[in-house]
Amino acid sequence: MELPSKSLERAVHExxxxxxxxxxxxxRLALHLIKQGPERIMDLADGLESLATNSQxxxxxxxxTDQPRCSICQDDRRDPHSxxxxxxxxxxxxxxxxxxxxxxxxxxxGLISPMDGxxxxxxxxxELVHRAESNGVEEVILALSSTMEGDTTAFYIYRKxxxxxxxxxxxxxxxxxxxxxxxxxxxxxxxxxxxRVLFESTLNR
Length: 205
Prior knowledge:
Elements: H1 6-15, H2 23-36, H3 38-54, E1 56-57, E2 64-65, H4 71-74, E3 82-86, H5 89-98, E4 104-107, H6 125-134, E5 139-142, H7 148-161, E6 167-170, H8 186-194, E7 197-198, H9 199-202
Parallel strand pairs: 3-4, 3-5, 5-6
Antiparallel strand pairs: 1-2, 6-7
Helix pairs in contact: 1-2, 5-8
């Protein structure tokens, strides 16, 4: 059913394009915003405009930032010899909350998933190989979700880095199979990180 207001209809249409938001949920959100008043709607619009115009991917680790290089990559106190590979910015935030890692990150931008049309070329895998080859990296830590997509991506990275003189490790499987890092509590995630193992040893399980 078409809504009586074209402005409301457009807002509902745009909101319903967000993941996990159906038309009914979008309508509920739009009506909530209207009740909050024009100022609240404009605050949201300004925030989204700022996101569109100022956000970018860090030229080094590919996390989301407002500068060419993110604050972590700019921090000289971080260990440049240790590189933690994660799926997206949510995993960076989860690991930073544990304070268990003092190195630097590499954000893939997703996981290999043929069902979703995501192949190696859609991720920052070549950039990862380049960083591992040229930046004096001694250890690459795979902190990927314990899912089929995560395991596939981890094995692909293992094959790509196999000939390099680096230590390739993976976080311990203290996380339930199928869970994403962002949903793990800080203690579990910290222990999984600290008890990481050589990735090659996980292939025999």
